[in-house]
Write a structure and sequence with these properties.
About 40% of the residues lie in helices and about 15% in strands. It is of the alpha/beta class. The chain has one domain: 3-Layer(aba) Sandwich (Oxidized Rhodanese, domain 1), CATH 3.40.250. A five-stranded parallel sheet has the order 1-5-4-2-3. Strand 4, helix 4 (about 100-110) and strand 5 (about 115-120) form a beta-alpha-beta unit. The longest helix has 22 residues, at about 1-25.
């Protein structure tokens, strides 16, 4: 009889715990890199032209690519964003159309609590192909 009571107690605890977790509205499903929102070069350009306060982050490895060519106003991948509000609009970009490093950076930003993060679809290549201005040497 003691074994049955112990089993029922354990089973009941598991059910209550499962229900509490399922009802927790603050629990969000984990985001994957492919699920990070994308923005086109045209959309980003329009938003910047409209004066929106968007932090544009160049996530390419090494400073040479950034020094040669980057989106006007973009910053090189920072070590810390401690001074940036978590609701700040952020767009990350890299070179490759697969958005590998920018999607990873955006995913890390989401994990750090930033809520308005997107990846430039097609990366720097899409910006240049659209004929938009660049800065650099």
């Amino acid at each position: 009889m003691k074994r049955v009571s112990l089993f029922i107690l354990i089973l009941g605890s598991m059910i209550v715990t499962s229900l509490l977790v399922a009802c927790d509205s603050s629990a969000e499903p984990a985001l994957t890199a492919s699920e990070v929102p994308r923005i086109t070069a045209e959309e980003l350009k329009k938003r910047l032209d409209d004066g929106e306060d968007i932090l544009v982050i160049d996530t390419r490895i090494g400073s040479r690519q950034y020094d040669l060519q980057h989106i006007p106003g973009a910053i090189k991948r920072p070590r810390s964003l401690n001074d940036v509000a978590h609701d700040q609009a952020i767009v990350a970009y890299c070179t490759e159309p697969g958005e590998g490093s920018s999607a990873g950076q955006a995913l890390n930003l989401y994990r750090e609590g930033f809520t308005d993060v997107a990846v430039l679809s097609g990366g720097m290549n899409s910006w240049v192909e659209a004929g938009f201005p660049v800065e650099g040497s």
